[in-house]
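From the pipeline queue, job 12 of 40. The input is one protein chain; the requested action is below.

Action: predict structure.
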Amino acid sequence: MLTLKLITEETERVIKGLQKKHFSGAEEAVEKAIAIDKMRRDAQTKLDATLAESKKYAAEIGKLMKAGQKAEAEAAKAEVAKLKTAAAELEQKKAEAEAALTAHLCTIPNIPYDEVPEGAGAEDNVVVKSSLRECKPGDTVGNWDTVPANGEAKLPHWELAKKYNLIDFDLGVKITGAGFPVYVGKGAQLQRALINFFLAEASKAGYTEIMPPTVVNAASGYGTGQLPDKEGQMYHCEVDDLYLIPTAEVPVTNIYRDVILDEKQLPIKNCAYTQCFRREAGSYGKDVRGLNRLHEFSKIEIVRIDTPEHSAESHKEMLNHVEGLLQKLELPYRILRLCGGDQSFTSAICYDFEVYSEAQGRWLEVSSVSNFDTYQANRLKCRYRRSEDKKVQLCHTLNGSALALPRIVAAILENFQTADGIRIPKALQQYTGFEMID
């Protein structure tokens, strides 16, 4: 969540940032936060004064008793009792104001960086790089018309999966329901190969692998911003009050909840392979067919904890890492800088990577790489002690998919289909153990 210091000291910047994110009632939300904080501070001021007065009376009681002024001492005791009651009421008011302030701050999204483009939705996202052609300033998704040359007609991945017995969507429906496919034979081997390839590449790039739980408590969901914003999109185990993770970002980032790190430990670089679970309520239609949108899928996540001064460089390195993976997989891709209106609730800046699906004639998002500034760290109480002056301050958190598997599999099947079968990208062949699916 946004820090109160930022809201009170840079009020106009916060309001403009929220408006850039198309957050409804930005000015009112900021004013409410400042008003609640004033109530908290007023209660604290009155409480301090009351406690000081009570202490003064308490010190007088002993002196009055020694002087034989019993009546005056009893009167002082009565005043102390009144002050204690008043202090308890003020403590309650302060606690209520603090709880109200925290709850309200959780409803306010992060503000975007200056370089985030203006825009209301996906059509306004800026294409900053493409493997297909050089991008021009101002290129947006709305005016982008470059796609790979498509000669003969291509089969979509769900037909290829059936033709080569790679993925059984109907069996998944039988066992669980729609959105839970069963991978078979070389389809399962391709999944495992991609997982091993992505983890090996992350290890080469200096990421420490983590194998976290795939269920988390509410405190972890709150720490990274899934709660209370996105609880409707997560599977909830109500008896135990635990949530199935939508991404490894949640458990891995929460490793550093309520932790004070030394500056020399930063940047921390972690990666994790997990299954991910998303309810995707309301998703239906042709754009969610096959592997395009699932309730359960595999993903490798990269997470960084860094200093404010170095986080932009970390973000750049993460973007280069993801781009390198797509290049090694020989997939046509483009990189989008998301506009304010299409950014997530918690991100300060986000880049999406999309691969082109030849058979479907559309771009498929396969990764989002975000810098959250101090927004998550403030919720997590993830801090570091500066080497220079030993002051403790909030870290920056970053994460990204490197990569999510379903749409990568879809793109490989569709883009590398030939008359003889499906060619496996060279970088994957050492992990699959085969060069073709036929």
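Job complete. The two ends are 51 Å apart (CA to CA).
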